[in-house]
């Protein structure tokens, strides 16, 4: 049966298109970026779809905020002495609720179906207690068109577990409804939104130094203090949503409302987030709404019985399947899918008090080709064409609108490699509404340089260009490496730089080799330059702050189910005589410098990218940054340009003792500027700067000079 709610949706879209957008000269986003003008029809159509869908939701559900409370209707809820269970499964011919509570006898609890394909059943209290005890196993049993009965985990289940030690066992849904005295109660408020997010990307399961799956409690008590100590202000948690295949890194989600049971219970995850908040750390969740696991027994795919797409979570045919990921693709134009996904966001925000999301796989969502075998050149026609998935873009607009309406201080980040314009502009302008996008081209540049280009041939201009290549009307999170760069088949940057030398050459009790000295020096410079030039925020993956060696490899048949490469070797940085501590201390210092000056918010001027000298010089407000990538040459009295005249002094120096350097730069030296050129004639200045001063710049080091006393210009 056709859903009447979508008939209204379509009529609203038609009215919006004819009455409003034809008359509107320009969308605000076009005024922000005039290059969008040739594509304004596409953007207006997209915005009309958004407005139409929003009005339909207001008509039939009372608005986005009520619509996103789906978890209060679907799944298991307690209502007036009954546990009420509801499940959307239009193709089912009959349905039952089974579990421990009824000895898996579905005939004792048949379900009824409404006109929208929603099945429901009411289970009364027994002796004043819920009819289904907390912690009971439950499943949804439905009859297919051919008469066969199949069992599935409820789509809105809040917790799912698997029998420990049983290889290939299916998951069971768990009714999570602890007594009041067993529910975790948050004690600490959400920290305020930081001026600049410095994000620590982490995976709880692989956060232990032991070869095992770490717990939420262990992470909260042992890893969070490390993150705080290194001056990060945000934690981004991967693999929180339940996923039956551990080696998927959490990206093949089976239970969207369930926490990953490998690391503990829902209440223990709440403790982790509350503990982070107590330390002043915000917590973002890596949310996966771009696809779903194709696992039939444990996940949403089990509800696909071959029905038409409007009665399914997914598209039918090839459109509903991601060939590279071997996973299912959502139909974002489906009423119940939108309810499910929007409610999912609200559930994590409210039940667990997450502070926002990093949306995974946004590129796959935005295009019908999913970015497969596509090379985005930056031409606007690559982004706005028949290849664009407008339904997915509209869903993301609704998602951002919802998140920012509920929690104005929430942070949303898009993982998009395509660089689509408008992604980081407000929905009210006609944008998609993300606060930040990931600057995904930066890691690839560093990897290519390290693998293919000798140090002496590095182009400073090309490095700076890559780091600066972003849309300045849309904020970006820069990173030199994330979890992606560490997966099996690749290496961490530290291991790429130093490789097997790290096994025996990291002791500070012996003279360091040329390879180790180069590796540590470049590790510091690459990460700091990425932070300082690459965006409006910074991200680091767990362990890379101290140069974690090797790579990540989850337990699998190919490695005999080993956890050896699926952990973090904290003992390396904790051992005082090992050189890992130097990279870690520098990471602390560069984060502290950003916290003190918030230099990523200050005006940026690059005054020199000297390919022969191998030096990059730039300013952020009253800070002057100097990066000398030359493998051999130390410059004494190296002249650098600046805008503000006065006295400068070292604020950060990678060559300092605490960072494993040779201590060649004097921190007690005052640098006084000299005027350059003719006042009022910039072409006569030094590197287009009206002032200059001289510095000592050792090979493979970086430094930041801070203006202590400003003087009057001549």
From TrEMBL:
<comment type="similarity">
    <text>Belongs to the glycosyl hydrolase 13 family. GlgB subfamily.</text>
</comment>
<comment type="pathway">
    <text>Glycan biosynthesis.</text>
</comment>
<dbReference type="Pfam" id="PF02922">
    <property type="entry name" value="CBM_48"/>
</dbReference>
<dbReference type="Pfam" id="PF00128">
    <property type="entry name" value="Alpha-amylase"/>
</dbReference>
<protein>
    <recommendedName>
        <fullName>1,4-alpha-glucan branching enzyme</fullName>
        <ecNumber>2.4.1.18</ecNumber>
    </recommendedName>
</protein>
<dbReference type="InterPro" id="IPR004193">
    <property type="entry name" value="Glyco_hydro_13_N"/>
</dbReference>
<dbReference type="InterPro" id="IPR013780">
    <property type="entry name" value="Glyco_hydro_b"/>
</dbReference>
<dbReference type="GO" id="GO:0005737">
    <property type="term" value="C:cytoplasm"/>
</dbReference>
<feature type="active site" description="Proton donor">
    <location>
        <position position="415"/>
    </location>
</feature>
<feature type="domain" description="Glycosyl hydrolase family 13 catalytic">
    <location>
        <begin position="194"/>
        <end position="579"/>
    </location>
</feature>
<keyword id="KW-0035">Amyloplast</keyword>
<dbReference type="GO" id="GO:0003844">
    <property type="term" value="F:1,4-alpha-glucan branching enzyme activity"/>
</dbReference>
<keyword id="KW-0934">Plastid</keyword>
<dbReference type="GO" id="GO:0043169">
    <property type="term" value="F:cation binding"/>
</dbReference>
<dbReference type="GO" id="GO:0005975">
    <property type="term" value="P:carbohydrate metabolic process"/>
</dbReference>
<dbReference type="InterPro" id="IPR014756">
    <property type="entry name" value="Ig_E-set"/>
</dbReference>
<dbReference type="InterPro" id="IPR017853">
    <property type="entry name" value="GH"/>
</dbReference>
<dbReference type="InterPro" id="IPR037439">
    <property type="entry name" value="Branching_enzy"/>
</dbReference>
<dbReference type="GO" id="GO:0005978">
    <property type="term" value="P:glycogen biosynthetic process"/>
</dbReference>
<dbReference type="GO" id="GO:0009501">
    <property type="term" value="C:amyloplast"/>
</dbReference>
<dbReference type="InterPro" id="IPR013783">
    <property type="entry name" value="Ig-like_fold"/>
</dbReference>
<dbReference type="GO" id="GO:0019252">
    <property type="term" value="P:starch biosynthetic process"/>
</dbReference>
<comment type="subunit">
    <text>Monomer.</text>
</comment>
<dbReference type="GO" id="GO:0004553">
    <property type="term" value="F:hydrolase activity, hydrolyzing O-glycosyl compounds"/>
</dbReference>
<dbReference type="InterPro" id="IPR006047">
    <property type="entry name" value="GH13_cat_dom"/>
</dbReference>
<dbReference type="InterPro" id="IPR006048">
    <property type="entry name" value="A-amylase/branching_C"/>
</dbReference>
<feature type="active site" description="Nucleophile">
    <location>
        <position position="360"/>
    </location>
</feature>
<keyword id="KW-0808">Transferase</keyword>
<dbReference type="Pfam" id="PF02806">
    <property type="entry name" value="Alpha-amylase_C"/>
</dbReference>
